[in-house]
Design goal:
alpha+beta, single chain, 4-stranded antiparallel β-sheet, Nuclear Transport Factor 2, Chain: A, rod-shaped
Length: 208
């Protein structure tokens, strides 16, 4: 009698893989919002130093988060850090330049402020001493009389400063601001020239 092979059970059917499924497909990365925020702050650069600092801090956090394989955005974070550094350095240089201009123009602003004060008080002789020879006594006297209805000068604030210093020529200083008198405020403009190390008023105007 021949022996029959032992009965082999039928293996269970394996269901086909779901449509579109691939065991080797990479897991999609999550958006790195901090890295994007870093890049945005680095691009804005509108608020001195603040946006640059935010760009660096957010960029550092974005790089740390990008270490997770499921998180991307490392390039955004690095770009944000670089732009943040550029922003801080740029604003620092700009601030240093503006500070140098403000310090260099301080003597001229003091002369302009005293000149307007003397004109408003009727002290034409003192105003004449602070002006260039081309401004006559009669001209200053007439201008001073027109200022009398405005009252005494209380303060002058210069918000616009334009200084030009060329080799071989005198330094010129152009000031714009607001003069506060007892009876109101008026826009003012004063032009000065530096001669022999001393600022002299070359021209001025006060809006009614």
């Amino acid at each position: 009698m021949s022996q029959q092979p032992p009965f082999a059970p039928t293996p269970p059917a394996v269901p086909p893989p779901a449509y579109g499924y691939s065991p080797s497909a990479p897991t999609p990365q999550r958006a790195n919002g901090i890295a994007i925020a870093s890049l945005i702050c680095g691009l804005i650069m509108c608020v001195p130093v603040i946006t640059g600092l935010f760009a660096i801090v957010f960029g550092w956090l974005g790089v740390r988060r990008a270490r997770d394989p499921q998180s991307g955005g490392k390039g955004f974070a690095v770009a944000g850090i670089a732009l943040g550094i550029v922003s801080i350095v740029g604003w620092a240089v700009f601030g240093a330049i503006m500070m140098a201009i403000v310090n260099a123009s301080a003597p001229g602003r003091n002369v302009a402020r005293q000149f307007l004060k003397d004109m408003s008080s009727g002290n034409v002789a003192a105003a004449k001493a602070q002006s260039v020879p081309g401004m006559s006594q009669a001209e200053l006297t007439s201008a001073s009389q027109q200022l009398q209805p405005w009252g005494a000068l209380k303060d002058v604030t210069f918000t616009g400063i334009n200084m030009e210093a060329n080799a071989g020529s005198d330094t010129t200083l152009h000031l714009n601001g607001t003069a506060t008198f007892a009876n109101g405020r008026h826009n003012c403009e004063v032009k000065l020239v530096k001669q022999s190390g001393i600022y002299k008023v070359k021209a001025y105007s006060l809006e009614p």
